[in-house]
Design brief:
Helix content: 40-55%
Strand content: 5-15%
Number of domains: 2
Largest sheet: 3 strands, mixed
Shape: globular
Oligomer: single chain
Structural class: mainly alpha
Distance between the termini: 82 Å
CATH class of the largest domain: Mainly Alpha
CATH topology of the largest domain: Arc Repressor Mutant, subunit A
Length: 298
């Protein structure tokens, strides 16, 4: 990121200053809900669905990238950089659901806001890790589905209702089940039946309408690279050399098209080939003479 700051003024980090407990173990659910509401209000998002979560994060100074993680238990990660005081989010590029990707982005926003002063590298207790994840999940749920406006649209907490609302709110049915649980719209038995029925319908990895939700790609870094190259400020080869990365890795973390930084092979120019010939004896002096050994006579 500091590399591109030499050429561009990126959006300033614009996250609300919220007084959350430094000891995350004392953070209560109502505080998490209030923090999500405050973040929406700070960014002027109202109470309806957020059209572009990734775009909102980038517009407020969060740098986002995507990579293929090839891991079922890892969807995204985030970090405040101590070098440039910038929050970074890396999302998985190999998940089939865009609704899930939106939730992952909101989840990492929750970590950035709620857990900024926690050194997660020092956490060794699995219970603490689970608590951090649960808190970020609660934040993402409240950030994407505000309690008042979302609950008014739940005429019946069923899977069919959730699918009917999916394209509007652009979240998964699974996320809506959890939101209804948080809001007290489901009792324990109702929630259990919903999960059982969801599994019976084969929705564990892919849900209906997943392919109808538009993909939200990071644009800040790709646009910066394209502008540098198009304006002849830096050539592709220079950017690649500056990064000290293989071309394929740089393309992935900067969200550039496959092959963008890879040098095209040089055109193959046909070269003349010498022909072997038997001299006739009439060649001019100085010509090339190829000697042949006479065949032995039997």
């Amino acid at each position: 990121m500091s590399y591109f700051r030499e050429y561009f003024d990126f959006p300033a980090v614009n996250l609300p200053s919220i007084n959350v407990p430094r000891n995350f173990r004392s953070l209560m659910s109502d505080q998490i809900e209030a923090t999500a509401v405050a973040c929406r209000q700070f960014w002027g998002l109202g109470e309806g669905p957020i059209p572009d979560v990734v775009g909102e994060l980038e517009a407020n100074g969060i740098v986002i990238s995507t990579i293929k993680v090839d891991a079922d238990n890892l969807d995204a990660f985030s970090q405040w950089s101590s070098l440039d005081r910038t929050p970074y989010v890396v999302l998985s590029a190999d998940k089939p659901s865009e609704a899930r990707a939106r939730f992952d982005a909101a989840h990492e926003l929750g970590h950035l806001v709620l857990h900024r002063h926690i050194d997660r590298k020092r956490l060794n207790d699995s219970k603490d890790w689970k608590l951090l994840e649960d808190q970020a999940h609660r934040f993402a749920s409240a950030f994407l589905m505000p309690s008042h406006s979302f609950s008014k649209e739940i005429w019946a907490p069923t899977l069919d209702t959730f699918i009917a609302l999916k394209q509007r709110w652009r979240v998964s049915a699974a996320a809506m089940v959890m939101r209804c649980k948080y809001l007290g719209l489901l009792n324990e038995e109702q929630e259990k039946r919903l999960w059982i029925n969801r599994n019976r319908r084969g929705w564990q990895k892919v849900e209906p309408l997943d392919d109808k939700i538009e993909k939200e790609d990071p644009s800040l870094i790709p646009k910066s690279i394209a502008m540098l190259v198009e304006a002849n400020v830096r050539r592709k080869e220079q950017i690649l050399l500056d990064s000290c990365l293989p071309a394929s890795d740089l393309e992935e973390i900067t969200c550039m098209p496959f092959g963008y930084f890879r040098q095209q092979p040089a055109p193959v120019v046909p070269m003349p080939k010498s022909r072997t010939f038997i001299p006739s004896g009439d060649e001019p002096s100085g010509g090339v003479v190829v000697q042949f050994e006479k065949a032995r006579q039997s």
